[in-house]
Amino acid sequence: MNAEQLHAIIAAGLRCDHLEVDGDGRHWSAVIVSPEFEGLRAIARHQRVYATLGTKIQTDEVHALSMKTYTPLEWAKQQG
């Protein structure tokens, strides 16, 4: 798994206004901005992202993924 593949998997399963993926092939970090996060708490947002990965987490194809998840409005405020 490389960053482009992980990016494509997340983007295919979740409408993203902004998506950054970085990592070393096992440990990943992502910044994900999606209108689908509106009204969801952090845990529900993360579950939504994990759902895009399907079995890739269980099979250890994606070992670890740390996320920062934002709605478009939260992201706009974050960017100043």
What does this 3D model show about the protein?
- The protein is an alpha+beta fold.
- The protein has a single domain, classed as 2-Layer Sandwich (GMP Synthetase, Chain A, domain 3).
- It is 39% helix and 25% strand.
- Strand 1 and strand 2 (27-33) form a beta hairpin.
- Helix 1 (3-13) packs across helix 2 (42-53).
- The longest helix has 12 residues, at 42-53.
- The model has no long low-confidence stretch (mean pLDDT 94).
State the gist of this model.
Helices cover 39% and strands 25% of the residues.
How far the N terminus sits from the C terminus, by CA atoms, comes to 33 Å
Q: List SSEs in N-to-C order.
A: HEEHEH
Give the % helix. 25-40%
% residues in beta strands: 25-35%
Question: What topology, given as strand order, has the largest sheet?
Answer: 1-2-3
CATH hierarchy class name: Alpha Beta
Tell me the overall shape: globular
Largest sheet: 3 strands, mixed
What is the radius of gyration?
12 Å
- The domain tally reads 1
CATH homologous superfamily, by name?
BolA-like
Q: Write down the overall mean pLDDT.
A: 94
Features:
single chain, 80 residues, GMP Synthetase, Chain A, domain 3, 3-stranded mixed β-sheet, 3 strands, 39% helix, globular
Describe the protein's topology.
Blueprint: H1 3-13, E1 18-23, E2 27-33, H2 42-53, E3 64-70, H3 72-79
Parallel strand pairs: 2-3
Antiparallel strand pairs: 1-2
